[in-house]
Recover the amino acids of this structure.
């Protein structure tokens, strides 16, 4: 199996090399298909190679981005039906899945370590929104693109942070508690931050955004939590399928956003990638530094860094779609997801190889 996996990986890399060659020699009609096939085949090969397994899903995401960029016409409409209408129900399924994994222990965490949780949440809603506003202003993006950068910064931490915390030998229990409380605070904090930071770029309807986040997060999360508490066997059965459904849902949402925003990405894509990369990496650095400033243990410092640097891009995308600005406001969130998975995986793997020094 190992030899076959390596063969697939090499075949995928060869496909990517051919994609680059076809672009350079002017045969761009072959570039898109070769990129998509190359990334997908490489991802299949990575699945059975332990050192690369963690990057397989991210590689699939690159295939999805390529499909959206080269063939947007297939992923915006099916007949008279706009595919963007699927974003809300897909996000609700993903949040329902998160709810089925939640227990009362996630809430008890704030009683056990109140200082760490409060510091983590404050860092989450202070550092990333401020960074987003600063970067959006400095890069002089068009108003709706700038608002999108602030939106991803104003969103809570995402589910990926809990996985990264485990890999990084961070405090997983603290990570889950911060993610839970940041998510529950999002219906108030995200619209509030958007109103005061992004309001100068575009019009923000505070109460409409509160209701949208409630529909996307609170209602499905609560249903999932109730099922996990009172219908344990059913919840355990769901847990076998929901992670795969969530991963597929995230990829499909990204595909729709990239396809819808292809023209905007062609105009500001390179600069927006740089801005998102700075936003993400600065979140890691400032989150870790803030935790150190409060003399938190090394494990907790790593946790806060990861919680601050990794955002819920799905929520940001859903809100952009509800605002009717998926092709512009939604772009920063679409780019943030793949980028944070790469940088987060690298950081978590590096920390995972380093022993945790006791404070």
């Amino acid at each position: 199996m190992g030899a076959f996996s390596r063969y697939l990986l090499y075949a995928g890399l060869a496909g990517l090399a051919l994609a680059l060659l076809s672009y350079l020699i002017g045969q761009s009609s072959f570039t898109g298909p070769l990129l998509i096939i190359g990334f997908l085949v490489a991802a299949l090969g990575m699945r059975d190679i332990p050192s690369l397994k963690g990057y397989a899903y991210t590689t699939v995401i690159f295939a999805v981005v390529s499909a959206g960029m080269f063939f947007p016409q297939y992923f915006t409409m099916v007949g008279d039906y706009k595919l963007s209408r699927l974003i809300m129900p897909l996000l609700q399924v993903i949040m329902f899945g998160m709810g089925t994994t939640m227990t009362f222990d996630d809430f008890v965490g704030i009683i056990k370590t109140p200082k760490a949780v409060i510091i983590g949440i404050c860092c989450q809603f202070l550092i990333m929104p401020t960074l987003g506003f600063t970067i959006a202003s400095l890069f002089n993006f068009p108003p709706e693109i700038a608002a999108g950068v602030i939106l991803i910064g104003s969103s809570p931490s995402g589910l990926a942070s809990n996985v990264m915390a485990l890999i990084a030998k961070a405090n997983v229990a603290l990570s889950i508690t911060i993610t839970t409380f940041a998510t529950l605070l999002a219906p108030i904090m995200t619209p509030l931050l958007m109103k005061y930071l992004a309001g100068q770029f575009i019009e923000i309807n505070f109460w409409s955004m509160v209701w949208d986040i409630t529909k996307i997060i609170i209602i499905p999360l609560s249903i999932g939590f109730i099922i996990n508490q009172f219908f344990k066997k059913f919840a355990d059965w769901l847990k076998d399928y929901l992670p795969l459904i969530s991963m597929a849902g995230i990829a499909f949402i990204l595909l729709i956003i990239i396809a819808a925003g292809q023209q905007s990405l062609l105009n500001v894509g390179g600069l927006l990638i740089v801005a998102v990369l700075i936003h993400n990496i600065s979140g890691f650095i400032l989150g870790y530094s803030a935790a150190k400033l409060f003399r938190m243990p090394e494990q907790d410092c790593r946790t806060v860094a990861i919680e601050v640097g990794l955002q819920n891009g799905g929520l940001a995308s859903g809100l952009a779609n509800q605002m009717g600005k998926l092709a512009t406001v939604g772009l920063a969130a679409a780019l943030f997801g793949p980028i944070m998975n790469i940088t987060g995986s690298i950081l978590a793997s590096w920390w995972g190889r380093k022993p945790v020094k006791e404070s």
User: Anything to note?
Assistant: The two ends are 44 Å apart (CA to CA). The chain has 16 helices and two strands. The longest helix spans residues 262-293. The beta strands are 77-78, 81-82.
